[in-house]
Amino acid sequence: LKNPFKHIDIFLNNPIDFKGAYSRKEVMMVGGIRINLTSIDDLIKMKHSAGRPRDMEDINHLERIKILRRRDK
Fold first, then answer.
1. Could you give the CA distance from residue 46 to residue 55 in angstroms, rounded to a whole number?
2. What is the C-alpha separation between 48 and 16, in angstroms, rounded?
3. Would you give the distance in Å from CA 66 to the centre of its chain?
4. What CA–CA distances, in Å, run from 14 to 25, 59, 63?
5. What Rg, from alpha-carbon coordinates, does the chain have?
């Protein structure tokens, strides 16, 4: 199994305001540890800013996740 937390991206120039992003964070429990995650909307903004082909593909997947979440509400 792949570990989704094995690799992380670090931004030297943050494309979004940290305080605003922190207020919109999502929280996930992993192995009893609380993990703060960037909201999907903020993640999409960051991926647009990076502009790599894989980020553009990720944006498509994230948009689908947003649609599924709205449907499940």
1. 9
2. 11
3. 11
4. 15, 18, 21
5. 13
Quick check: helix, strand or coil at residue 31? coil
> How does pLDDT run across 3-46, given as a tens digit for each residue?
766 777 777 777 889 899 999 999 999 999 999 999 999 999 99
Q: Quote the CA–CA distance of 31 and 48 in Å, as a whole number.
A: 31
The per-type count for the chain, helices as H runs and strands as E runs, is 3, 2
The residue type at 27: V
> Phi-psi category of 8—alpha, beta or left, where left has phi over 0 and alpha has psi -120 to 50?
beta
Task: Compute CA 37 distance to the chain's CA centroid, rounded to the nearest angstrom.
Answer: 7
pTM of the model: 0.76
